[in-house]
Structure formats: C-alpha cells, structure tokens
Design goal:
The chain is an alpha+beta fold and 444 residues long. The protein has 15 helices and 17 strands.
C-alpha cells in the first residue's frame, strides 16, 4: 500500500506521510480476504446441535474476530480497521440474506479463518511428470526440467515456519562433521580386500559397479551415508549370516545439503498483499508433500520405476544447483528414529585415497584359533620394505595432484576415512516391527 500512496495529512493520526484513501484500503483488504480467508459458520451444524443436546459438547464458533484480524493483517490501528470493516460490510450487503437473518460478510460479530490452500495444480504437474518418466520419455523429457525448475526455483532462500533454512551446512565446525557408510559381505576374500583398503572398498563404488539407488541412476557413483552408524547398518538391509563393514568418513570441507525434513515444514515468505503470495503458499504446500514422496519406503520389486522421479530430481539438483548444493539429507525409512541418511552427489563424493606406498605389504587376520574354537578378531598389518635412501618430504599440493593423476579423477576429495572407526558386524538376527491384522472370512 505504501507504493501507491501520496504524501498528505492522515485523517486518523494527523501526521504528514504517504497515505491512501480509506476506500482504496478497503478494496485492497477485500482482495486479500477473498484469497486468504473464509468466514466461519455463525451457527452449529445439525450434527453439532445434536451433540450439544445429547452430550457435554459445547459448540463454540471458530475463527478470529474480524476487527482483530484486520488489525493483524494490515498492522493498522483499531479505528482504521473499523472504518475498513464498515466499508466492506456495506459493499457486501445483501438485502435478501439480511431479510432471512443470515450474517453478512464483514459483519461486526463475524469471524474468519484461513482459506484452505489448494495445490492441485502442482500435484497434477507432478503426476504428469512421473507418468512421463515411467511410460513416455525417460532421457529426453521436455517436461522434467520445466517441472523441476518451477518447483525448485529459489529453494535456497526457503525457510520453515520456525525460520529454519531448508539448505543445511555440514562439514568442519558444524553439527555434521562426518558420515557413516556400510557394505554387506558374504565372501571372505571380498571382506579381506575391504579391510585392506576401506577407502576404496567401503567408499562409493566406481561407475561400472554403481547400481541404481533412490537418488542415483545406474553408473552414477554417489556417496550414500548416514549420520549414525546404526542407521547406515540398517539401510543396507543385511541378512542373517552376513557380515557388514561400517566406517566413519570425515568431511574435509564445507558442504550444503537440501534438508528434506525441513522441506516438509517449508512456508511461503512474503506479504498477503502480494498478488503472487497465494501461488507461493500453494507451492510450499506441495513441497511439504514432495519431501514425503522422496523418502517413502519402496518395495524392492518396485524400485526400478518408483526411484525414477527421485533419481531425476537428484540429477537436476546436482547439475542445476551447483555449486550451491552438494547433496540431500533425508530421514531414514528403515529406522524411524529421526536420524538421517545423506547422499552426496558425484562431484562431492570422492574419498581421499590412503597414502600407501607401492612397497607396502598389507595383510589381514580375521580371527584366531583357541581352545574353544575359532574366535573372530580382526587385525590389519601394514609392513613397508626399508628404503636405501630417505626421500624429501612431499609437497602437499604435489601429493594431491599425484593422487588425482593416479586415480584418473579430477574431483577434489570431500571425505577421508577414519581408519580407527572401521568395524565388522556379524548379523545374527533381524528384528521386525510390525502391525498385525487378522483376516476375516465369511461365506454366504
């Protein structure tokens, strides 16, 4: 309203400032109320009336007093709000409704509540997006980038109702300084190889071995981890008799994560007087549901198709929001404990290689024979052959470049394995939490 005012004496406060006429203000408030609020019923429904007669239920009208709501929405004084209310009551006066004793809009005793935000337009677009990916055009879809641009444009500025950002910072000096990762083994030779070089074997797989996951397509190597060891362990769904190796990977640099839990509480910023605000509110409502769609448990047989939308979203965020976004933080579907999984996109998923010289021999012991039988106990031994001549200290930059050349990877490492954190878990049993429903049968 300040943008359309003119400098003159305010008829209410008598100060010289930018003002508009009361009629102009009333028209603006009328539009805001039409978009964002609805008048509540001034009498109980038939069901509520019966409940009040047959029980202790006492009907009470819902909503906020019209005068108080006008003051709250417009940050205006009571006398200004009352002037606007009177103008709007006159504007919406209906002689037939009044003759029948019905309450009119903006009546002195009327009460209003928030109008339901409809986000069907976004849900419809999402359904078309999913159908297109699954049944029409997977790799050259025109709809996919358009849909995702509409949904995620400006996401880095979004916040929750509690003013919590949806983009979370992780890395040194933050609440998330490391991540845990797990891998299942049933072959002794592969387990030994993993303990010899956990930086290579427990870290992300090479592209040729990267299977499709919730947030990556087949052949795209990403780092799937968790904020807690037990979450990483449960996410690989180990079977009884298998062995699982878990390890902690420290983050070497700051990274940014899209927090899907925060996304489920995202709100629309801005003013109710902004014509685009209701659209932003509808979009925020859809984004809240989108976080649930992206983290919902998926049965193994359905993963190929059900993971397609989330794979495309992750690839879009990785390519279009670089360098603002390095990955996604999302609740674990396996543990239901409020602890989280993390996927780091390809560019931010490189694990620093251990500095092991070519003349170092590594051996692994997986247990020892005792009087009671074979007892599991894991030891890794590194032995370096003596050198005839000592070499000068290696320049750190040269060492990093040498590592990149050896690995053929031009990315900068974002993670470093903590060798002291490596553990082997023998899976002895699996516990399921379940709900039981009896099957009833009848025959005519």
């Amino acid at each position: 309203m300040k943008k359309i005012g003119t400098m003159t004496i305010c008829s209410f406060c008598r100060r010289h400032l930018k003002t508009i006429s009361l009629e102009q203000a009333a028209n603006i408030f009328d539009k805001v109320f039409e978009q964002h609020f609805v008048r509540t019923e001034d009498e109980p429904t038939d069901m509520e009336y019966m409940m009040s007669r047959e029980s202790d239920y006492e009907w009470e009208r819902s909503g906020e007093d019209i005068l108080e709501l006008l003051q709250e929405v417009g940050h205006i004084e009571p006398e200004v709000a009352e002037g606007i209310r009177q103008l709007l009551e006159d504007k919406h006066f209906d002689i037939d409704e009044t003759a029948m004793g019905e309450e009119s809009d903006f009546a002195p005793d009327s009460r209003y509540t928030d109008r339901k935000i409809e986000s069907e337009e976004f849900h419809s677009e999402w359904r078309s997006f999913e159908e297109s990916l699954k049944t029409k055009s997977r790799y050259f879809s025109k709809r996919a980038p358009l849909t995702l641009t509409i949904l995620f444009n400006g996401i880095h500025r979004s916040k929750t109702v509690g003013n919590r950002p949806v983009i979370l910072s992780a890395g040194p000096g933050t609440s998330i300084t490391s991540l845990f990762r797990a891998r299942v083994f049933q072959d002794d030779a592969k387990l030994v190889r993993a303990l010899e070089r956990p930086d290579l074997e427990i870290g992300p797989p090479p592209p040729a071995a990267a299977v499709a996951g919730r947030m990556n397509a087949r052949g795209i190597s990403t780092f799937y981890g968790a904020t807690h060891r037990e979450v990483a362990l449960s996410e690989v769904r180990p079977f009884v008799g298998s062995r699982v190796v878990t390890a902690q990977f420290d983050l070497l640099r700051p990274i940014s994560l899209l927090d899907l839990e925060a996304l489920s509480e995202v709100s629309a910023s801005g003013s109710l007087f902004d014509d685009n605000h209701r659209y932003q509110m509808a979009k925020a409502n859809f984004l809240q549901s989108l976080s649930q769609k992206m983290t919902a448990p998926v049965l193994p047989d359905a993963e190929i198709f059900e993971y397609l939308p989330t794979q495309v979203i992750a690839e879009y965020l990785a390519s279009q929001m670089k360098p603002e976004l390095d990955g996604i933080l999302y609740p674990s579907a396996q543990t239901k404990t409020g602890k989280n999984n993390v996927v780091l996109f390809h560019e931010s998923s490189l694990v620093e290689r251990l500095e092991i010289s070519d003349d170092t021999a590594i051996s692994v012991e997986t247990g020892l024979q005792t009087a009671d039988g074979f007892e599991p106990e894991y030891w890794v031994f590194q032995r370096t052959a003596p050198k005839e001549e000592a070499t000068d200290a290696t320049d750190p930059f040269a060492a990093e470049m040498s590592q990149k050349v050896r690995s053929g990877d031009r990315r900068i490492p974002a993670l470093r394995i903590d060798l002291s954190s490596v553990e082997v878990h023998h899976i002895e049993s699996v516990v399921y939490k379940h709900s039981d429903y009896q099957v009833h049968r009848s025959q005519d």
